[in-house]
Amino acid sequence: MDTDLQALQPPSAFSISDVERDTGLAKETLRVWERRYAFPQPQRDAFGERSYPAEQVQKLRMVKRLLDLGFRPGKIMQHSTLQLQQLASAGAAPPQQAQPQLEHYLALCRSHQMTELGDALRQALARLGLKAFTVDIIAPLTAMVGEAWACGELAVYEEHLYSETLQTVMRHAIFSLPQQSNPSLRTPRIVLSTLPQERHGLGLLMAEALCVAAGAHCMSLGVETPLTDIVAAARAQRADIVALSFSSASKERQTRDSLRQLQAGLPATVEVWAGGRSPALHKRPPPFLHVLDLRQVEESIADWRRRHQADALQTH
């Protein structure tokens, strides 16, 4: 029994692959930092492989968060985890206080009251409608959960509990919305996915919800779809748009290369839309890419309709 219980404890050390998955920091980056900044300082396991203590992984999470906020590694690597947390709190984008209901939802998550959380989210959805619920509740709440995880206040399994609860609520809401049936209103057909090695799916789910709320016909392929399959799905579904979601964990060069390959494989009439926190979307994005955030989804679809309505009039 003791052995079984020990097996259930969180790991005290992580392989370099574990750290890459956990933090979104590439293995090559970790090795460079090890030489340049003397951090991290992995131990070696019985096979001579790098083994990272849990407290170093915790600090690396905070380092990654600060990099996303624009800090440079050389300026922050010498700080303690607590100092990094303070920097992250000071540098976080929204300075205003979190809404009381968001704090309440997070408290339900912390105390593992997932049934109560699901009920509370459904009540908010019924009150606000899918668009406002997604933009004003789910987006900031998901950011709060991610920050709590990065600070070590939530375990990975607790973040997963939140994700599963949210997906149940959102999927039901998406399927309950009637599809656009007005024949005079041109509506886009959208295929949604993330690229290989992009495992984060909540951003994709929020994008799908907002596209459906705006009257689009959507087909989600889920996460980590191979490029060839995204192209095949777009052709089979006669898609007008391929919409992709990226997290800050995505690698900039790989993201750029994948976007170019995807665009080259799609019919010329298919637009590529993307959102999220990948640096590739905000530092010189490819000219063919339409970059947008959640609040811009409705207007982007309305603009698509205007453009294609005009095209249809010109052909008659």
In terms of topology, how is this protein built?
Blueprint: H1 2-8, E1 13-14, H2 16-23, H3 27-37, E2 43-44, E3 50-53, H4 54-68, H5 73-76, H6 81-91, H7 100-110, H8 114-128, H9 130-150, H10 156-176, E4 189-193, H11 202-213, E5 217-220, H12 227-236, E6 241-246, H13 252-265, E7 271-276, H14 279-282, E8 289-291, H15 297-314
Parallel strand pairs: 4-5, 4-6, 6-7, 7-8
Antiparallel strand pairs: 1-3, 2-3
Helix pairs in contact: 4-6, 7-9, 8-9, 8-10, 9-10, 9-11, 10-11, 12-13
Question: Which CATH class of the largest domain is shown?
Answer: Alpha Beta
Q: Which strands sit side by side, in order, in the main sheet?
A: 5-4-6-7-8
Number of E-state strands: 8
- Strand content is 5-15%
Looking at the structure, the CATH topology of the largest domain is Rossmann fold
Question: What is the averaged pLDDT score?
Answer: 87
What does the largest sheet look like?
A: 5 strands, parallel
Describe the protein's architecture and organization.
With 316 residues, the chain is α/β, with parallel strands linked by helices. The protein has 15 helices and eight strands. It has three domains: 84 residues, Multidrug-efflux Transporter Regulator, Chain: A, Domain 2, CATH 1.10.1660.10; 77 residues, Methyltransferase, Methionine Synthase (B12-binding Domains), Chain A, domain 1; 126 residues, Cobalamin-binding domain (Rossmann fold, 3-Layer(aba) Sandwich). The strands form two sheets. The chain has a five-stranded parallel sheet with strand order 5-4-6-7-8, with helices on both faces. It has a three-stranded antiparallel sheet with strand order 1-3-2. A hairpin with a 5-residue loop joins strand 2 and strand 3. Helix 8 packs antiparallel against helix 9. The relative contact order is 0.08. The N terminus is likely disordered.
